[in-house]
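Researcher: I'd like a candidate sequence for this fold, 176 residues long. If you have to choose between options at a position, lean toward the conservative one.
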């Protein structure tokens, strides 16, 4: 390589680096739902439902020993999902070409619709994502303390955390 080609090569490298550095990664919402939030939400409810006695409360005796450790991991994943959505440089709803669940149903939202809802109310979205983050933290705490009362309350409250965000940002057309 002569000096000229080397300079050109370096400047291309530098431009690429600067472009990447200013283009901070955005969190992919669809991917976060599918790989983190949804599976861990379902896993939490699965464990807590199976451990609920006839009185509607979680019975510590019905929680399998290994499930306490799993609950900590579930809480961490929910916390991380909420944090990624609330604190990233931006949220992109889905990769180009991805289809959302039920998107082919008449009147259902597409990724472009959801992106518009999100971009219109970023602070409101962040609030709901932080709520998810805090709920994850409570799952961790209650599992570590083996506090079945708080765990039950948190598991019951999670449904509204999901739904409150979905009704604003996923299917606002269903709001009556
Ligand atoms: C901060 C807002 C927010 C929270 C909290 C949230 N979601 Fe979502 N979720 C969305 C939005 C917006 C969509 C629509 C975009 C999409 O489908 O990926 C979505 C989509 C989904 C989907 C459909 C994914 C697909 O294939 O299109 C599932 C399943 C889901 N969420 C489950 C959950 C569960 C379970 C919880 C709670 C444990 C939850 N979400 C919490 C915003 C949220």
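Model: Candidate sequence:
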């Amino acid at each position: 390589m002569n000096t000229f080609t080397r300079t050109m090569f370096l400047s291309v490298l530098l431009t690429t680096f600067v472009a990447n550095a200013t283009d901070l990664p955005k969190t992919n919402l669809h991917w976060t739902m599918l790989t983190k939030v949804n599976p861990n939400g379902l896993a939490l409810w699965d464990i807590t439902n199976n451990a609920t006695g006839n009185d509607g409360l979680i019975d510590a005796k019905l929680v399998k020993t290994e499930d306490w450790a799993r609950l900590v991991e579930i809480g961490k994943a929910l916390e991380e999902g909420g944090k990624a959505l609330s604190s990233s440089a931006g949220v992109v709803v889905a990769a180009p070409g991805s289809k959302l669940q039920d998107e082919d149903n008449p009147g259902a939202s597409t990724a472009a619709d959801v992106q518009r809802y999100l971009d219109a109310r970023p602070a409101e979205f962040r609030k709901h994502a932080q709520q998810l983050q805090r709920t994850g933290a409570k799952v961790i705490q209650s599992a570590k303390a083996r506090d079945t009362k708080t765990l039950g309350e948190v598991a019951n409250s999670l449904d509204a955390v999901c739904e409150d965000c979905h009704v604003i940002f996923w299917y606002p057309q269903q709001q009556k």
